[in-house]
Amino acid sequence: MSLFFLLNNSLRRPFLSPPPLAVLLACVMSFNVDQKNSLSFSGPLEDMFGYTVQQFENSEGKWVLIGSPLSGQPAKRTGDVYKCPVGKEDNKCIKLDLPENTTVPNLHEVKENMTMGTTLVTNPNGGFLACGPQYGYMCGQQQYISGVCANVSSSFQILNSVAPAVQECAKELDIVMVLDGSNSIYPWTSIIDFLQRFIEKIEIGPKLSQVGIVSYGETVTHRVNLSQFDNTADLLEFVKELPQQTGFKTMTALGIDTARKEAFMPERGARPGVKKVMVIVTDGESHDFHNLDKVIGECDDDGIERFGIAVLGDYNRQNKSAEELQKFIKEIESISSQPLRDHFFNVSDEVALLTIVDALGRKIFALEATTGNFTSSFEMEMSQAGFSAHTSSEGVLLGAVGAYDWNGTVVMYTAGETIVPGKTQFYDPETEAGYEGLAGYLGYDVQSASTPDGVLYITGAPRYNHTGRVIIYRLNEENNIVVSQILKGEQLGSYFGSVLQTVDVDGDSYTDLLLVGAPMYMGSERDEQGQVYVYKINQLGKFKHEFTLKPVNQSCCTAHSASCTNKNEPCGARFGTAIAAVSDLNLDGFNDVAIGAPFENDHRGAVYIYHGDQTSLKEKFVQRIPAGGDGEKVKFFGQSIHGVMDLNGDGITDVTIGGLGGASLFWSRDVAELRANMTFDPVKINLQQSQYQCEHSGRKSMCVTTEVCFVYSVKSDKPKFDSDAGIRYDLTLDALRAKARASFINSDDKNDRRITRSFTIKDRERKCVQETFMMSARLDFRDPLMVSLEFGLTDEDRGPVLDESLPRSINKTIPLVDCGIDGKCIADLSLKAEPSMKSMMIKSNKDKFDVNINIRNSKDYAYNTKVILSFTPNINYVKVEPEKGCTLNHTKVECAVGYPFLGSNVEENFKVKFEVNPKHIQEVIQINVTATSDSEELASTLSDNTVQISIPVKYEAGLIFSVRPVDEHIVVKEGEQFASVFNDTRMIGEEVNISYTVARAGEVVTPPLDLTVTYPHLSPRQNHLLYLTHVTTSPRVKCDADRWINTDKINPNIKKPNPNKETLSVFLLTCSAELYCASFTCSIPEAEISQVNVTFRVWKPTFIKGEFSSLHMLVNGTLGIKNTNLFELSSGDRTRIVKIQVSKEALGGIPIWVIIISILIGLLILALVIFALWKVISLSFKYHVTLREDCHRLDFLPFFFP
Length: 1202
Known about the structure:
The protein is mainly β. FG-GAP repeats lie at residues 35-93, 371-422, 482-544, 561-619, 623-683.
């Protein structure tokens, strides 16, 4: 995790750890890293003491190195590294004062914020490397953050400083100010103020920068030559009284050209080889703009980098139009060098010039760090080399995340040379357009992997495309980057690739795994849980994702939380912030991994231990080490981890874990193997066998002697504690039953079904103990008697821990039998099995059938009776009715019958259900049914214990057979002519395209098929009807149509059509003795979908000369199955017919006189209708008038009659 993470932390909810173990023998989450006895080192939390840790050893003793990157804050955050002694009475940590002694000569160094100790790695050849990636130096007024590392010897002496990104300052610049002094500039004092503020930022001198000033209006004047002043103060004094040029014209092209030709001349102080810079300040469009293109081109030829400043004061004062303003801005942009974002400025008026002084200065002074023309982008100047580091026998890899505008790079530093990859070596500009703006932080972490084919170098870019990526590459003979693989993150902002760790699990010197951390991976509650991706390298040297490791889920405060106690945000774990390859902790021969989750439990933190397994890891963590304390003095436990050394001399690797404010050294405890075995005498319980009878407390019954043997061995060659170990064990009878069927004798325990014993055992010793138990007088024979053994150490806090890969409990059973005095049970099983179907036509995967089973025992008890059904893979087992204890293993089902025994003269019936499996096609369903038991059976009665079932099957081909189109209509116009010569098939007539499709439907496969296409080829008088021109198919479909395609070979040949006139009056032209049909066949293989596309031309001359009005020609597509023994087609899937109708249009149309008479009759009818309507309306009107008059007369009648 970077400093960026930790300087922006807030609070989150606490993690609730699992409850303590309640019983001795429960599965525990702690293993052999001793959490109760550790050595702690404390330092200031605000100094980030504990940000990095490394174990270290030299001639003086053993140490823990601790990085404190903010040591010296708040005034100076130079950082430092502390050495903390191990195994001495005084374990006080001593500061090494690395910043003071880490220096790069001939530089104006800036160490105030160098953050030494941010990166800390030990050197395999002795000594260590400590880096301060914020180390900087000054070039003029510009500070560059290049980073530096101290190469420290085993005696804590700095051998040399490693700063591959430091470059010699190119301090010399020749700067000419070209000032518009025309009358429109107002007030001139604002220009003077701008000049003074700008010049103050320049170190002027013969070996530094020089400044010249040219002013212009209608004419040009040299105000200051480049060599005129040799210090900044004198020039500042001079420009106080700099006069304005004045003039009514703005001759910008003249001013620039004069400056180019004269101001940059050696006579005026210009120096050969020094970068030329021109700053043009103007407030209006030039009057000699027509010369600008030529002048600017000559400036480019002379290598003059130009900065253009547009002052908009005059435009604003005169309220000029937006078009005029835009035209002026475009002109100043054309004057400025590219890119415009670095070289063009505009301000609202003369006074506002002061606001751009700092920005202009940064752009110009950035040129001091580069030697190329027309660029002010950063390459290695802000690289922060040493942000990450990795040491190997090949050299040192240093991550430089700030290089190339924060896209980053990786620098390789060896004794012989320093390899700094170019800007584009880690990406392809053609396929990754816009990479420059991604700020991917390449080099955030670095690692290497050893393979039989050489070394792979690995680096992460956690901000690339916001999801992050990891680049795996090699160096070729020219030391150029050759990218071999890219791993991509999956979630935005997860910081995938920010933490990397390679692991050699089996210790063969070749890398097995690559672990990639994504510590900010969001969980389901938008909390930063984090996760770690595990990649395994294959024989081709490529990393393949195996699985993903995740932490214990942290509960976070939400809007719906009833109560919250967390103090810090963000919530989560940030699992994967630190990943360490740890030398074999549990002494199983495989190296292990420790992963930090510093945000767990309200930022207290935790570390997870994962054990190696062959060439991989076990997915389940074996130990979670939480931080102790209240989280106030030490935070983010698990921020750093290192575990490669034995620091207390017991032969076992110890683990150092750092947080902010402290670090702890955890001792690893030895690992012991404790193996147990249990035997019984007798091995079966038969109450009728008198020789095993015993008496206890006045009761006689059968007794069983149990012998338990233990073997104890310590793995380490140098055990730290006394080799004697205390062992405790428990024996329990019928643990799964409410009431036991036996009890221990001579037991002092109150619970006579369970005894607890303890003893001591030496390393490499085998010790056995015996216990006796008595059976109850009346036994339940339904299941065997279970004896459970649980064992462990009497003191789990001291001495070795038990190997977690070995069991801590054993369960064994003793069969209960009732077979007479001789102890022999002779059964006689007989089996019947009948299928519900004698044969099957399979249409889908849902077709089912039953096998009805009857099993009978005619003699002694048949213990552990089973019915076993073995079947061919063309069926699947479904279930048993009624339900029984059946187990499925591929194509075999075992069903327990009458468990624990099938009694004498007892029979059982049940039904086994199967369904077809159309993925396996076979002609027969074969099922072998066998009855077995643990009891003996005479050979003479075994013949009826087996039944073989054979069911012949056929499959209905699962397919969809379709054709397009179904109908086609061709019209022959009366009097239509045809060409006398055909030299192209398109001249024959209309094209008819027919497409046949066979697609798989359902689970049954589509078998190999034949598609036969039959079509009318020649008429009774041997005239062409349908002429085949093309047949195209899906891949693997083969057709024998070549002999029918373009039979006359038209184009290149020519064909003279000369059809015989004939009567084609038959409504349907189908294949008969008179009508000749052609056909061809296509072989269609097994496939999801297959197509056959057929193209015909209707032979138009035949139908033009023929006598008919309308007829139909039928094209038949018929499917056939090659393997008729196994497959069948349904009747509806066999044939598809396309009907091609040909019609002849009647001669002529409707005569004109008929059309005229029809129009006249229509108009007459319309007139009669209008007249009739008029009459109706007239009569209606008269009726309404009469009615109103009658009503008016009625108004005079009295309301009531007298």
